[in-house]
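Try it yourself: sequence plus iron/sulfur cluster, in.
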Amino acid sequence: MSESLRTEPLPSLSPRPVDSVTSRVAAPVVETTDDLILEVKDFSVDYGWGEEAVRAVNHVNLNVHRSQVLGIAGESGSGKSTLVYAITRLLRAPGIITGGEATLHLGERGTAQGDDNVLDLLAATQRELRKIRWSQVSIVLQSALNALDPVQRISSEFEEILKTHRRDMSRAERRVRAVELLGMVGLEEDRLARFPHELSGGQRQRVMIAIALALDPQLVIMDEPTTALDVVTQREIINELHELRSTLGFAMIFITHDLSLLVELADEIVVMYAGTVVERAPASALYEAPRHPYTLGLLSSSPPLHGPRNELTGIPGSPPDLSRLPSGCSFHPRCPYAMERCATEEPPLRTLDDSGRSVACWLHDDDPSVALPEVLARATPLRVPTSQTKTFVPTRSAS
Ligand code: SF4
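Structure, out:
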C-alpha cells in the first residue's frame, strides 16, 4: 500500500468553544440504532488554526447502518472527503478535528452489540486504529495509481495485507484468497503478476476494491472510486459494487460529485455544500423530488444514466471560498430562489417529512408568504425512477 494509506493520524486538537463557531441545529433523524455501524455527531473539521482557520466540515451528523450504502454528494470543496478522512483518522495536516463524535459499532453481523464493541474513533489509540483498519473499515481512494505501489506486483499487495492480518494463513491459502478476491471484481488470476502500470484504470480500481474487501470489513469507504474512469467502466464497477454489497453484506459510504451515479447505488444520500449538510433523504426520494435548490442544481449538472435526455443547466457560479463564506445561507449567491433573509440568516437542517428527509433551506420554513417553486415541491419524478430502470448488465469483460 502507498504511504497515503499508512499515514498515522494527527492528534486532534481541543475543540473550539461551541459558541465560537457557526451554530447549527443537529439533524433530527428518527431511526433505529440497533443496526448502526457508524455514528457521527456534530462533527467539525478545520484547516489551519487560530484566526487563519477555515471550516471545512461544519457540525455534520450522519449514521450508517449495517449493509446500507450511504452516498455523500457535493462539488469539490464541499467537505465530503475531508469528513470521511477525519472520521477514519486519516486526515493530514493542516486538517484538525475541532469538535464532535465519531463512534464505530463493531458487533458481528446479525448479533446484538455490546458496549465492548463500541469504539470511539476520536479517542482511539494508534493500536486500536491499526486493529480496525482493513479488517473492520477499509477505504478505496479516487486514484488507484497513488494507492498501489508502482514497483510491487499486484500479488504483493494482497500478500502484504493477508500476511499482516491473517497470520494463520499459509502462502498457498493467501494465493487462493487473492485469486478469489480478484474473481469477485471480474479480474483473471494472471493480473496478480502484473505491475499497476500494466493495468487499465478500471482494472487498477477493481484491484483496490478487491484489496479493500480482503479482510471482509463491515464498512467500506469509497472516495470517488470511479471519477477518473470512462462511463462504461463506471457503470460496470457500480453494478459490481451493488452485487458485492448484496452478497457480502458490508455497509458502504460512497463519495462522489455525480449525483446521478450515486442514485444507482445508494440507499440514502447526504448532500453537502461548503462543509454543511444541506439535504439528506432516501436516494430515490432525493432523485425523484429534490427539495434543496443545490440538490436540484447537482441533478441538473450531470446526464441521467437512464431515461429520457434532459437539458443540462448546471449551477451558476463557483463553489465558495471557505475562508470567505457568504453570510446567511452560503449557497445564496448562486441560488436562483434566494430571498432577502437568505443573505443574513443561516437555515438550520430540519426534518421535512417522516421519510427521513431533512433539508436546510428557508423555502421549506412553512412561511405562508413564501411560494415554494413547483420544481422543489413536486411529488412526481423529475426523471424516470431508477427502480424502473436498473436493468444495466455489463456485457464486456472487465476493463
Ligand atoms: Fe436558496 Fe435561500 Fe434556500 Fe439558501 S435558504 S438554498 S439561498 S432559497
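One thing you can check immediately is this: The chain is about 25% helix and 20% strand.
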